[in-house]
Design brief:
By secondary structure, the chain is α+β, with helices and mostly antiparallel strands. It contains nine helices and twelve strands.
């Protein structure tokens, strides 16, 4: 008669490792939040404007679009007014895994994550206007206005499953993500832009400390209220727009 044999099962003890990173932007970061106006249009479209409505209202409101392009902190005690979604940094790490040996994109997605939902972004936002091509068949040109951080910094905490992933792997992935992926709009990961790149640095890095000390909540509130033009193209477009709106007596859309 057959008998059952006892077998021993070795259970791997999985613990949660944690690493704090200081992020220092290397190229400007363009904010890309979807505005409430766009979300409301998706939920309940207004329909096309009549010819009379088009003739009496401006198509764009650059300053309002600038303000709507940023994510704002829900936490009243946040050190900054502007935040980034934590998932942006996780997505960057996952994207970096495609080109880095040792881990896969799916593995990084399952076994590592950025703590919290929001990441405080230090720096001073400026208004940026640029001619873009729409995604329609005719690639219709339009002017898009967003907030851009010429210099920026952040602090994030990444937690990961040990021993399935090592601390060195997480650090290398995050460092490579800063070069090959970036965050925000027109980032490196999209292929055509080079915005949103970053490096890992130390807390006592002079440039990091300067941005954190001079790009907090109060400075951001002031910049949001009275935005400065990022470049000469923005300055010229914004000046022309403000003059024409007054001259034509337009109601802002």
């Amino acid at each position: 008669m057959a008998t059952k044999r006892e077998t021993s099962v070795e259970i791997i003890e999985v613990t949660r490792g944690s690493i704090d990173f200081c992020i220092l932007g290397q190229t400007p970061m363009i904010c890309n939040a979807m505005s409430n106006k766009v979300r409301e249009e998706l939920l309940l479209p207004k329909g096309k404007k009549t010819a009379a409505e088009k003739a009496s209202s401006a198509k764009h409101d650059p300053v309002a679009e600038f303000r709507r392009s940023m994510y704002y902190a829900r936490d009243p005690n946040s050190p900054t007014r502007v935040v980034a979604k934590a998932v942006a940094f996780k997505s960057a790490m996952m994207g970096a895994a495609v080109d880095m040996p040792g881990t896969s994109k799916a593995q990084m997605g399952r076994l590592a994550f950025v703590v919290g939902d929001e990441v405080a972004i230090f720096g001073t936002p400026e208004i940026m206007m640029a001619v873009v091509r729409s995604a329609d068949m005719n690639r219709t040109p339009d002017v898009r206005t967003r907030a851009i951080f010429p210099t920026w910094a952040a602090r994030i905490t990444v937690q990961y499953a040990m021993p399935l992933i090592k601390a060195a792997t997480v650090t290398n992935q995050m460092a490579f993500a800063g070069m090959s992926q970036g965050i925000g709009d027109w980032r490196v990961q999209k292929g055509s832009g080079n915005y949103g790149q970053f490096i890992l640095t130390e807390e006592d890095n002079p440039q990091f400390r300067m941005i954190v000390e001079n790009g907090g909540r109060a400075e951001q509130d002031s910049a949001i209220e009275n935005p400065m033009a990022f470049d000469s193209e923005t300055r010229e477009l914004l000046s022309w727009y403000e003059t024409e709106v007054r001259r034509r007596g337009f109601a802002v859309a």
